């Protein structure tokens, strides 16, 4: 009976120490100041340094983005705004 009480008391003390350490570590992590800038600020800086970002917005580098089929079949790159429209049927 004495051995069971001793083991139970040792187990209880061990578990309480583990729980106290976990609470202490989680408190320190949750209440520590942030170590870096927010991701929004970092992303905004990366966007502003992009070569296509001018005058507060993105600018197209090509007037027409060639498709894979154009490259595969060797079609010339044409701006869709300059291609003549077919007459209606």
Question: Describe it for me?
Answer:
- By secondary structure, the chain is mainly alpha-helical.
- 51% of the residues lie in helices and 4% in strands.
- The protein has helices at residues 2-30, 39-48, 68-73; strands at 53-54, 57-58.
- It has a two-stranded antiparallel ribbon with strand order 1-2.
- A hairpin with a 2-residue loop joins strand 1 (53-54) and strand 2 (57-58).
- The longest helix has 29 residues, at 2-30.
- The model has no long low-confidence stretch (mean pLDDT 78).
Annotation, overall tally of beta strands? 2
Percent of sequence in beta strands = under 5%
Distance between the termini: 100 Å
Question: What general outline do the C-alpha atoms trace?
Answer: elongated
* Separate helix tally: 3
Largest sheet: 2 strands, antiparallel
Helix-strand pattern: HHEEH
Overall mean confidence score, pLDDT = 78
Strand order of the largest sheet: 1-2
**Helix/strand class:** mainly alpha
Residue ranges: pLDDT <50 for 5 or more in a row? none
The helical percent reads: 40-55%
Rg over CA atoms: 33 Å
What's the topology here?
Blueprint: H1 2-30, H2 39-48, E1 53-54, E2 57-58, H3 68-73
Antiparallel strand pairs: 1-2
Pick out its properties.
89 residues, mainly alpha, two-stranded antiparallel ribbon, 3 helices, 2 strands, 4% strand, elongated
């Amino acid at each position: 009976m004495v051995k069971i009480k001793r083991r139970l008391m040792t187990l209880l003390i061990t578990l309480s120490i583990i729980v106290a350490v976990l609470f202490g570590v989680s408190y320190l992590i949750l209440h520590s100041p942030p170590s870096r800038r927010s991701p929004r600020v970092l992303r905004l800086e990366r966007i502003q340094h992009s070569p296509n970002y001018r005058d507060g917005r993105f600018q197209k580098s090509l007037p027409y983005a060639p498709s894979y089929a154009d490259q595969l079949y060797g079609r010339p790159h044409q701006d869709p705004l300059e291609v003549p429209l077919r007459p209606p049927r």
